[in-house]
Amino acid sequence: xxxxxxxxxARQPHDADxxxxxxxxxxxxxxxxNVLMALHVCLTALITGPFILVLPRRHVVAISQWWAxxxxxxxxxxxxxxxxxxxxxxxxxGGALIAAKHQSALETFAIxxxxxxxxxxxxxxxxxxxxxxxFLSRLKMIAIDRSAGGGALLQMLDQxxxxxxxxxxVVIFPEGTRRPVGAPPRYKLGVTxxxxxxxxxxxxxxxxxxxxxxxxxxRRRQGRAVIQFLEPIPPGLDRASFEKLLRQRIETATxxxxxxxxxxxxxxxxxxxxxxxP
Length: 278
Hints:
Layout: H1 3-11, H2 24-52, H3 57-79, E1 81-86, E2 96-100, H4 106-110, E3 118-123, H5 132-138, E4 142-144, H6 150-165, E5 169-172, H7 190-198, E6 202-207, H8 209-212, E7 223-229, H9 239-263, E8 275-277
Parallel strand pairs: 1-7, 2-5, 2-6, 3-4, 3-5
Antiparallel strand pairs: 1-8, 6-7
Helix pairs in contact: 2-3, 2-5, 6-7
């Protein structure tokens, strides 16, 4: 039985995502972070909103990266979560396909400053969020209508092709949604279709963010979260080989990072650092 499955089953039913339940201080810090992050989003949108419709898109990208770094700073100062980036040598300028593990909301903005011009594959409903949705639309994210069935796939492929021609980095979460730490992986076909259609290398991304920012809870736990860009998968593999290799690389590296995080519950100081944000 894979490590991820054993770990997931061993923790059921008391905690599907991570360490033991955090205390009251952690909860209050997490609530404060949520409030400050919401203010950060609103103030960024209100101050820059009048300009995003007229500024060149490269300036809007710069604003989004500044916003992401601000969120990471708040996370570090208020909650005590640092983000370490590994494997930046596996990134190269220009168009790329990035396939990332998805455990929490953290990686949705922690990845942004690492890429020159990222375009995320996301659900269309996010573009309807007041203020925040303005930026998503202006940044030309790939917003998918999941109720459209096969039409959603064609829409995603067309938009991804255009982004690749513009030298952007297409970021997709192969499982489609956040998964608990240790849960058996459930990869969908979207990433495979993109790999075949775009005919480019695919950079897998592993992480342990769910240990510190579990899904479906207000609690964020102090420590150093790691996001690791792995060795690129070259273009041209057949579908079965690509899917097997992608899953193997992401899940093996993720298991290793999660084990590393749990081996050092005392926090960031115990983990060897590489590149930390902000």
